[in-house]
Amino acid sequence: MNPLLDIKDLKVAYGGIHAVKGIDLNINKGELVALIGANGAGKSTTLKTLVGMVKPAGGEILFDGKPTARLAPYDYVGKGLVLVPEGRGIFGRLTVEENLQMGAYVRNDKADIANDIDRVFSLFPRLKERRSQLAGTLSGGEQQMVAIGRAMMSRPKLLLLDEPSMGLAPIIVQKIFEIIRMIAAEGVTMLLVEQNAKLALQTADRGYVMESGRITLADSAANLLANEKIQQAYLGE
Amino acid sequence: MQSKKQIITFAALAVVLAILPWAITGGFENGKSWLRAVDFALLYIMLALGLNIVVGFAGLLDLGYIAFYAVGAYSFALLNSPHLAAVLPAWLMHPPLLVMLLIAACVAGVFGVLLGTPTLKLRGDYLAIVTLGFGEIIRIFLNNLDRPVNITNGPQGINNISKVNIAGYDLGRPIEWFGLKFDTVHLYYYLILAFCCLIIFVTLRLQRSRIGRAWVAIREDEIAANAMGINTRNVKLLAFAMGASFGGVSGALFASFQGFVSPESFVLMESIMVLCMVVLGGMGHIPGVILGAILVSITPEVLRDVINPLQSAVFGERLFDPENLRMLIFGLAMIIIMLLRPEGLWPSKRRAREFHEHEEEAKA
C-alpha cells in the first residue's frame, strides 16, 4: 500500500538559506509520526511546506498518491491535509463555536457539521462550557484546544500539529497530549512536530529526528526512546 | 419561524413607510423638499449598505466608494439622455428599468473588480490611500472626458436625463390614483424604497451565507482564513464587486431622480460621508448602518431649517453664516458620538463585544 504522505528529497530555501536540505519522510494511514529536533532544525518549515504556505525549492510531495505542487494554499483543507499552526492561528474575535464552524468551511453537510461540533465538544468539555466566549479571551491551553478542534472540523485525512505544547504549563501539556492520543485512537493520521521529544516519542508510533535541515535518524518511537544518542541530545538524561 | 410580534412590527413599519410621504407633504409647508431629502436618504441607505459589505463585512477600508455611485449614475445618464443618442445604437437607448439597473450594477461591479485586483494584498491605511486615489481618478476622468471625444460632457455634466418609465407610466409626470395626486417625488419615493428593501433583503441573506462567514474570517485574520480553505482572493473580489454593484444601482436611480449628473456630485467628501454613515451607525450591523445613513443624510437638512431661528434665539441676531455653522454642529455631533460610542450607535453584538473585550477578560 502506498503511504498517505510521501516526501521525496524535499528542499526548502528562504532566500539563500537552505532550511530543509533534501529530506525523505513518509506516513502511512493511521500512524502517529513524530518529527523531533532542536530549534531551527527545519521542522516547522517542513510542515509549512506541506500545506503550501512555503514553496519548496526541490523534491516532491505526494499526498494520497498525488503531487501537491500545484495546489493553492486554500485547496489543502479540501484535500484533507490540515495544519494546526504554531501559535494556533485561531480567530480571536470570533466565539469558540464560530471558530469551529469556520473549520468546516469547505464542507456542505449542515447536519454532519452540527454532529461534529458535538463530537469536538465531547473531546474538549472545557470548550463546550465556553462555546460562546470570544476565542481570544481563552487561556493558552484552551486556545490550543480550539485550534485542534477547528482542524478536526474539516475531517482531515492527515493532521499536522506544530508544537502543540509550546508556551503551555506542564499540566496542560499532559492534557493536550491525552487528547492527541484520543484523536489518534479514532484513526486520524497525524504528524506531530515537537521540541518536547520525550512526550512526542512516548505518544507516537514512529519518529524522525531532524538536525539542521536533514533527517539524521528514522526509527520506531520505542527504539528512538531507547537510543543513547537521542537520550543525551534531546531527552536530557 | 416568525413570531406574531415580528409580523405586527413588520406590518406597522410597512404602513408607516407607505404613509410617510403623504404625512411629509401634507404636514409641512415645504413638504416636497423634505420628501426629496427622504428620497436621498433612501439612496444613501443603499450606498451605505454597499459600502458596509466592503468595510463592515470584509474589513477592507474603501475611501473611494462614491466612484461606483458615479459609474452607475453616468451609465444611466448616457443611456437615457439625448447626449449620446446620435452615436449609440438605438436598441441600446432607454432600456427598461430592470435591464438598466442590471447594466448599472454590472458596470459598477466590473469597476469594483478593477479596483480590487491590484489592491488584493493591501490592507488598512495602504488600501485606504489606493481607493481614495481610485475615487478621484474616476471623478477626474468624468471631468475631462469631453475631449478629444465628448463622452461625459465634462464639468457641465449631462442634462435632460429621462425619468423612469414603468409599464407605461412616466414617473416624471404626476399621476392620479384613488383621488391622490402622486408627484414625481412621491413616485420616486416608492420606487427607491422598493429597491432599498431589495438591497436590505439581499444584504441580510448575504450576511448569513457561507460567503458572509468567509468575509468575517478574512476581516479577522486573512492567513487563518486561507488555511480554513477560503479562497481569499475571490472572496475579496466578490466583496468589492457586490459592494460596487449596490452603489451602481443607487447611482442609476439618483441620475434619473435628479435628471442631471455632473462630476461635482461625486467628490471625496461624499465617499467620506458614506463611510461616516457606516461607522457611525455600527459597522457590519445592517440596522445600524441604515440608522447611520438616515441620521447622516437627514441631520444637515434639519439643521439647515433650524440653524437660523436657533441663532436668533441664542444671540439675538445672525452672527454666523448658517452654512458654516451647520457643518460645524454636524461635525461636532459626529465627534461626540464617536467619543461616547466608538462601536457605533447601534452595533452588532459582536462588535460591541470587541470594544468591551477587556471588560470581559477581567470578568473571566
Explain how this protein is built.
The complex is a heterodimer of chains A (237) and B (364). Chain A is an alpha/beta fold. Helices cover 38% and strands 27% of the residues of chain A. Chain A has helices at 43-50, 76-79, 96-103, 110-123, 125-129, 140-152, 170-185, 197-203, 221-226, 228-235; strands at 5-14, 17-27, 32-37, 58-63, 66-67, 81-84, 158-162, 189-194, 206-211, 214-220. Chain A has a six-stranded mixed sheet, sandwiched between helices. Chain A is globular, with a radius of gyration of 17 Å. Chain B is built from 14 helices and four strands. Chain B is globular, with a radius of gyration of 22 Å. In chain B, a hairpin with a 2-residue loop joins strand 3 and strand 4. Chain B has helices at 4-27, 31-57, 66-79, 97-116, 124-144, 184-207, 210-220, 222-227, 232-258, 268-281, 286-315, 322-340, 349-355, 357-363; strands at residues 165-166, 169-170, 175-177, 180-182. At the A-B interface, helix 2 and helix 3 of A face helix 7, helix 8, helix 13 and helix 14 of B.
Topology:
The complex is a heterodimer of chains A (237) and B (364).
Chain A: E1 5-14, E2 17-27, E3 32-37, H1 43-50, E4 58-63, E5 66-67, H2 76-79, E6 81-84, H3 96-103, H4 110-123, H5 125-129, H6 140-152, E7 158-162, H7 170-185, E8 189-194, H8 197-203, E9 206-211, E10 214-220, H9 221-226, H10 228-235
Helix pairs in contact in A: 3-6
Chain B: H1 4-27, H2 31-57, H3 66-79, H4 97-116, H5 124-144, E1 165-166, E2 169-170, E3 175-177, E4 180-182, H6 184-207, H7 210-220, H8 222-227, H9 232-258, H10 268-281, H11 286-315, H12 322-340, H13 349-355, H14 357-363
Antiparallel strand pairs in B: 1-2, 3-4
Helix pairs in contact in B: 1-2, 2-6, 2-9, 2-10, 2-11, 3-4, 3-5, 3-9, 4-9, 6-9, 7-9, 10-11, 11-12
Main location (chain B): membrane
Protein name (chain B): ABC transporter ATP-binding protein
Subcellular location (chain B): Cell membrane
